[in-house]
Each structure stands twice: as C-alpha cells, then as structure tokens.
From TrEMBL:
One Pfam family linked to the record: Cupin_2
Family matches, as InterPro entries: Cupin_2, QDO-like, RmlC-like_jellyroll, RmlC_Cupin_sf
CDD domains assigned to the protein according to its UniProt record, in alphabetical order: cupin_QDO_N_C
Full protein name: Cupin domain-containing protein
SUPFAM superfamilies according to UniProt: RmlC-like cupins (SSF51182)
Amino acid sequence: MTIEYATRYRASSRIPAEPGKPYVIEKGEGDRAHLFGDLVTVYAGGEQTENTFNFFTVEGPRGDLIPAHVHPDTYEVFYVTHGAVRLFVEDTEGNQQERLLTSGDFGFVPRNCPHAYRIERHHSQVVGVAAGPGGTFERFFETLGAPTDRHGLPPEPVVPAPEAFATVPHQYDVRFLPDHQWRTR
C-alpha cells in the first residue's frame, strides 16, 4: 500500500510534507518532472530534511549540454548508475575540467563552482544529492520544467524559453550563466 500526501507543490505526492517522518518510496514513485529531454524524480527534499540535503535521479537520452550554472551555497554530487554523463566543472580559480563519468563513477561539485553536464549515452541515469547552508534546489525542476505523474521520458523535450532561466527564484540557489564558455572540448 502506498500513502499519498498533498503538498504545497503537488495535489498528490508520496513524499510526506513534514520533516521527521520516516517513509519508503517504491522505485520511480517520487515527485516527477520533465525538464529538457529528461525525467527528474525527487525522493527526498528540503521539506523532509529541514533543508539540509535532497536526493533525486535524472534519467535521459543522449542530449545537449545542460546550461552552465552555479550554486552559491550548495554542494552537488553526481553518481552515475547507468550509462555515461560528461561533467564540466570550473573551480573558483577558473581552472576547468571535463570528465566522462560512467556507471559507478562519482563527481563532486563544490559550491560556487560553475558546472554543466551532458548525457552521453541513451538510457543514462544519475543520482544527485545536493546539500549546503543555502537549502535545497530540488523544486527548481518543477518550477522551470513541467511536473508530471507519468513514468518515463517526456514525449517532447520541455525546453524553457531563454528568459525563463533568469526567473528561477533565488530560494533554489541556482544561477544560470548564459555567457559561460567551456574551454574544454
């Protein structure tokens, strides 16, 4: 039996809205949103962790580079469970690196470090965790993308208008860098 809750973000969610309540979510049954060609599934967010961390997956096909962005107060983890993802990161001194992460590989992006990624193989999946004093950003996916109850990738990519990136609320600790250039390949 699965319990559903109403939250301030959704009429129906399997994630309890209040912190300190244990719960279990079956595979794929978290809060889902489509963004770009990907399916993002949130399993734990700020509401459950008192804004200390979040836990989500991103599944997608081979695609375009996700735009460069920075989290001023949030540390982010990329752990590839299936396929391959190319991670682009710039440290606070301006040194850039690019790495291909495959199944079992781990990438860490400290706060204030511009980064981007690109899914390199169809049917890839990344587990993401973000934590930091600025709170969590998992509700950003629903705000910029499209909440969905569907399993699977979007039938058509959900691509926000360029001006939408500037409207992402500061509470999500995501700042896009539209003019950022990667000097790596």
